[in-house]
Amino acid sequence: MNSILVAPAIMVGIGLFFGTILAIAQRFLKVDEDPRIEKTNELLPGTNCGACGQPGCLPFAEKLVAGEVEPSQCTVSTADAIEEIAEYLQVDAGSQEKLVARLRCGGGRLQANQIAEYQGFEGCRAAALVSGGGKGCAWGCLGLADCERACTFDAIHMNANGLPQVDTEKCTACPDCQAACPRDLFELVPLSQNLYVQCNIPLAGEAATQLCRVACDACGRCAADASPGLITMEDNLPVIDYSSGGEPRPDAVFRCPTRAIVWLEREQFQDQASRKAGTA
Amino acid sequence: MRAFRFLRRNFEHGVHPAHHKKQTQDLPIQRVPFGRQFIMPLGQHIGVPSRAVVADGEPVERGQLIAEPGGFVSTALHSPVKGIVKKVGDFRGVDGRFAPAVAIEADPFATQEVDPDAAPDWRSLSLEAFIEAVQMAGIVGMGGAAFPSHVKLSVPDGVRIRHLLINGAECEPYLTTDHRLMVERPEALLEGAEILRQKLGAEETVIGIEANKPDAIETISRHLSPDQPVRIVKLKVKYPQGAEKMMIKSVFNTEVPAGRLPRDVEVNVNNVGTVVAIADYFLRGMPLIERVVTVAGPGVTYPANLIVPLGTSVRDVVRFCGGLKPGTREIIMGGPMMGRPVASLDVPVLKGCSGILVFTEEQTARRKEFPCIRCGRCLEACPYFLNPSRLARLSKARMFDEMKAYNVFDCVECGCCTFACPSNIPIVQLIRTAKDDLKNRKESDG
User: Fold this and answer.
1) CB A202 within 8 A of CB A105
2) Which end of chain A is more exposed for a tag (fewer CB within 10 A), N or C?
3) Rounded distance, CA B446 to CA B441, Å?
4) Is B279 part of any domain?
5) ipTM value of the model?
6) B439 vs A: CB within 8 A
């Protein structure tokens, strides 16, 4: 017998052996996956941004099919896409309030005092490690665009005043900018909440206003004028409790001596001072 | 090869920055007059911040305990002056952030003396009591890192320390504090070394000094007594010779593996300043309330080596040295390779502050950054055998998790790679940024 045939024969034998095992396994160990999961996954945007609270689009699709979440919890999809998913799965689309990222700081180049000049790698985290950057305020925006680079949806752009401008249309409220900011300044806030505190300084009085012209000096006027329970002072900063039942009014903005509290209809930094910086 | 070991008092890699020590190396140590206000941050050492034990308005004596250790890796703090506690609150620290500190207003009419018998007799103390005494004296590594000394001295059971290594390399350019201490206070250095050696049960004391300090080597040799097992080792002038692991490699030709400590090779390393501080406490009763600081650099009017009470503002120190020259752009606390720029003149001098260096436009102008040309000079410079160029590229791409595979946490941020880079890439800053990102993320996850 030709010994050259021995090797192919063994290989064919092994192949047949494992093939049989695989065939048996296919028959008895089969896992049935709901075909709707794949289809739903295709209808989702596929950005894997994590804004819905799931690790990615596929796990979200699985939960959708299981009925644990509502299609509208995907903040990235358009209204039409959400409707399509709801129709396909025969469920209610649900209503989800649109969240946007808001910056808890209004101290741009024009407002915050500079105590030093930072030269080095252009990045907020890098600057924060070198004596806290050039701004005197140790809690405010560093203005070196770590969030702009982190944003997957092109929703954040630095404005001329050196503050990140969040495009409320494009923002999907994924947490990327929150993770990128070394000062933890981004908050995900419902777009319908107009009254917003644009400051993060835990100091009071002159100590705060020395650092920045739009710092909250913890005077407490906004809290005193608002309906009871709506605004409380915590750690020298006003905290707005939208669930308290009181109606937030734009009056608080006019009572604020430093304009640390603002009334936002859409984007931040639309006031006169910021616009002036834009033209300069 | 063993016969030629004496020729190789050296470690692999490293760089050769110009030393710039001429400005202050022959200036005797002077004492800075006491200022008005002193700020003692509670977290001026590595580890857990201390806990304040004084309240606003309380009178304090010089050397009185004002904060107790907040944990094991933490030390005590003492008042640097006789005066009144003005405020226990948040003050700006060297890192630009506001952190808890004790502000003390000095009594301008006090003699500012320290009770010389405040310390316990070190001979009668057990090792545990001795280590606790070191902690309560607030003694930390004075080379710059401010790592609590008692943690270093606490050796687990079964580990023996055979060699006490005293680090007198002072490889950072400009700094001359350890150099002047060795020249001016060799007795204190040898006393402190003997206390440590006896308490640790080490066989010998080795003092490692870089070859550019011949006067220090000569002075210490003159003060050696034959019954004290002390050996002086002359080291090659090279940066970072003063890094613990590099020095062990140079002196004993032993490598401390990554992630291990000097005690794993039976060595305990202490800085010259730390050893003098130990002698000052146990023999003269003074806890760590002042330190020697080199004020140098082209931007300062009168460079000097100064004894500065801790908590003195950089402003007061610079004013004593005749102020800043016009054109000053940057003040660095520590050495130029590893020190940190200060964002405000009001920040206080800390336990780990070995120098205040003042630079002008000429030294600080940011050079234009070019792309990495893969020349490999950073690899040749890195004393820890890392790949800085790869780490920098990953950091720029924000691929921080991948950097862990390249042992980013073994980096000690010595700055050799940035110094060697011909493309002026801020490699260390990129690595530091990545480490910060990884550490903060770890905290938020856990």
Assistant:
1) no
2) N
3) 9
4) yes
5) 0.81
6) no
* A149 in contact with chain B, both atoms CB, cutoff 8 A: yes
Query: Do the domain assignments include residue B161?
Result: yes
Which residues of chain B lie closer than 8 angstroms to A236, CB-CB? Answer: none
- Residues whose CB is less than 8 angstroms from the CB of residue A160 and which lie 6 or more positions away in sequence, other chains included: A277, A278, A279, A280
Return the structure tokens found at A267: 């984007």
Domain range holding B400? 377-445
**Count of domains for chain B:** 2
Whether domain A99-279 has CATH 3.90.1300.10: the reply is: no
Per the domain annotation, does B33 fall within a domain? no
Domain map of chain A by residue range? 38-89, 99-279
Name every chain B residue with its beta carbon within 8 A of the beta carbon of A150: 398
- Backbone φ and ψ of A89, nearest 5°: -90, -5
pLDDT along chain A (280 residues), means of 10: 87 96 90 84 85 86 87 82 86 79 90 87 88 87 91 89 89 86 90 89 90 91 85 90 82 87 85 54
**Pick from A78, A81, A80, A34: nearest CA to A58:** A34
CATH number reported for the structural domain that contains residue B224 in this entry: 3.40.50.11540
| Per-residue CA distances from B228 to B60, B164, B246 (Å) | 40, 13, 26
Q: Which residues of A touch B437 (CB under 8 A)?
A: 125
B443 contacts in chain A (CB < 8 Å): none
Phi first, then psi, for residue B186 (nearest 5°) are -65, -30
For domain A38-89, give its CATH number from 1.10.15.40, 1.20.1560.10, 3.30.110.10, 3.30.70.580.
1.10.15.40
CA of A270, closest CA in chain B: separation in Å?
Answer: 29
Angle at B389 between CA B388 and CA B394, to 5 degrees: 95
